[in-house]
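In this supplementary section we document a worked example of the pipeline. Step one takes a protein sequence of length 234 as its only input; no multiple sequence alignment statistics are reported here. Step two produces a three-dimensional model, which step three serialises into structure tokens for compact storage. The input and output of this example are shown verbatim.
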Amino acid sequence: MRAALLSLAGLLFAAGCDRPTNRTGAAFTATGELIALSGGENGADAACFTCHGLDGRGDGVSVPRLAGMPVGYLQKQMADYAQDLRADKVMGPIAKRLSDADVRAVAAHYARMTPAAGDVSATVAPAAYEPCAICHGDQGEGVGEANPSLAGQPAAYTLEQIDRWRHVHRRNDPKGVMSAAVSELSAPDAQAIAAWLGRQSASQPPDTDAASVSAAASALERWAASREARRPYR
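The serialised model returned by step three reads:
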């Protein structure tokens, strides 16, 4: 009898000492905030906020904003970093260590953030931006999920991406559209576009209207056909 009572007491004690479920931690992880603040499997040194800021708006110099970017776009970029289609010595190793679930969570976390408002008076785009507007919108707001907003991105970052597209160090565009587009940009035009985009308000939502997306796709096809027609015969 004594042994039975001791056994029962032991079971009750063990049950009472079970570690409580960390419901807060589970919710934290689900939003991706924990990954953004801790770096997940990459450790604290690789935490997203150390470069992209607690508000996801970047550093205003060369680190891009993630706040308000489409979830699907952010997920694709992480996948491309992991596959070296978008080669980057910082982001590549980070992307390779994050699970698909982690990427989805952290992408959703940044997509929900509010980007900073820009200079609303900077409304006149450089003439060289006209072809870019087909996919990226008249004010750089983006057209559809696949064509990201460029508004409010630091000029130095945009120029760096143009250079990477131009030299095929970045290869994650469908059918080489971006590489072809930037090949026709002069250095002064690229600088003017990057500076103008950096002043635009990033708080405006992307144009996701089906008609607008369809029109952009058709315009892009016409632009590609026109460019092909101008290509010298080989």
